[in-house]
Structures are given as structure tokens and as C-alpha cells.
Specification:
Layout lengths: L1 E8 L2 E7 L17 H7 L9 H11 L11 E11 L2 E2 L17 E12 L1 H11 L4 E3 L2 E3 L1 H18 L7 E2 L5 E2 L1
Helix pairs in contact: 3-4
Amino acid sequence: MIVLHAGILGREFFLWGETRPEPGILLSPKPKGKSSRRRARESVSPLPYDAGVEKLSIALQKAGFSYRINKKSTESIIIWLPTMDGTPAPSSPLIADSPGPEEKATLAPWTINVLHFSVPQAVEFLCTCVGKQTLAQGVIIGHDLGFWVQAMRFAGALTARQQFLPGIAQEDGIYRA
């Protein structure tokens, strides 16, 4: 079972998966006494729920989405997730038990493996997800991926109705008509 997540970093769309940790992986608390920023600079622990590129590729194949994986399309990045007592909060109870409501959450950095999608690949993949909660048996669409599906549908609806003002991107990142 894998929960698919997505995000945008810079101008790139990326996908990552969350799954139950392997039996040998311990969810041990991170060492205390160092600030989050200092820990992030020194070394960031891998997310114990990270599905990795291989399981992610298998999940995409099960869903009928062909994606060629090469070294340029994969990367390890740092994300900040809610963490309680050194353990990341899972996005779903299907991944791991959620901590009790008395636990105080903080944001902490974790390393995950992601797949980068080109714009056409991202659009094709998001279209595959429209109106679905699962893509295949054991392949679940996470809430953040669901958000990007809705954002794509909204942008497509604006474009189809010609309800947008085309702009020109400037070097400072501001769009001007």
C-alpha cells in the first residue's frame, strides 16, 4: 500500500510516496539539544515512511501510468513535516498509528526520494487522478495530490472559458500584461 503525494518546488512538479516502514526500521526519536536548523544543515534523517523510487515506480505502473525513471528524474529532497517526539506524523492511519491528541507537534526536516515530472507528464498524471481516491489496488491519492488535481482542473476551466489574462514573466518573478 502506498499513499501518493505531490508538490511543486521552484518550477518543477514532483511526486513521492508514503508507505508502512519496513519491519527493521525503528522510528527512534532524533537527538535532542540541537536546533532544527542546525540538524538540517548537519544531516537529515530519511523519512521512515518514504516509499522510495522503486516502490513509487511500481505503483505508477500498477496505475497504468508509464514513467521512465533515470538519474535525472529522481532526487532526494528535504521536506518539513509535523513531528512528535522525534517521529514524523503519518498522513494516514493506513501508514502508521497517529500519536495521541496530547502530543505536541513541531515541524522537523526529513529526507524523501522524489520523481520529477515534466509539465506534460504532470498534466497527464493529474488527469489520471481526476475524480479518484485510488489509482489501483493499494495506490491511494494523498490529500496534497488531490489539491494539485483540483488546481489543475481550475486552471483548465479558466483557460477553456478564456477567463485569464496572459502575462509575461519578468526576471523578478512578477507577471505583467
